Amino acid sequence: MELEDKISGLEKTIAMLRMALEGAIQTLTIATEVRDPYTAGHQRRVTDLAISIGQEMGLAENVVAGIRMAGLIHDIGKLAVPAEILSKPSKINDLEFQLVKTHPEVGYDILKNIDFPWPVADIVLQHHERMNGSGYPRKLKRPDILIEARIINVADVVEAMASYRPYRPSLGIEKSLEQISRNRGILYDDEVVDACLRLFRENRFKF
Description:
By secondary structure, the protein is mainly alpha-helical. It has one domain (3-201): Hypothetical protein af1432 (Orthogonal Bundle), CATH 1.10.3210.10. It is 60% helix and 0% strand. The radius of gyration is 18 Å and the shape is globular. The relative contact order is 0.12.
């Protein structure tokens, strides 16, 4: 077999594997959102914003690809949270919130043995950590939180506040941006916040 044929065959195999991985990720995304219809589309919207933030920050293409993959399944751990809590039409209580807070670790456990070309499981684990160590589940601080997780964290907060939830109406995009701006460098990475604010203020992104 000619070398060119071998290379062509390898490229086709890689393309097929990539398509299979994409399909598996889409299935996981759908499975998560079927159980939580009120946030259907949440992971996709968070991913779209996170990708735009990564690109705005000038991150390498491969890093942005990892952000995309992790973003699409960042809430996969909610499969372990009772559906009645996820769709509760009133504010959840402290015990219920403790159950919700397990979802990053559950997501990590689901994903940790998949050989992604990016640190997807760690990104999912860290996407609710805060710069000052007040996040969860491991109370990590700025140096220990992956940049991909910092980006998904900000995108997650902005999307969640701007969207309708069963226990409250949408707070609007301006309130979302005020929240990340006010906590810039405290809860949220300052460079990530700045990139996000530019995208919205310059009308280069909208949900």
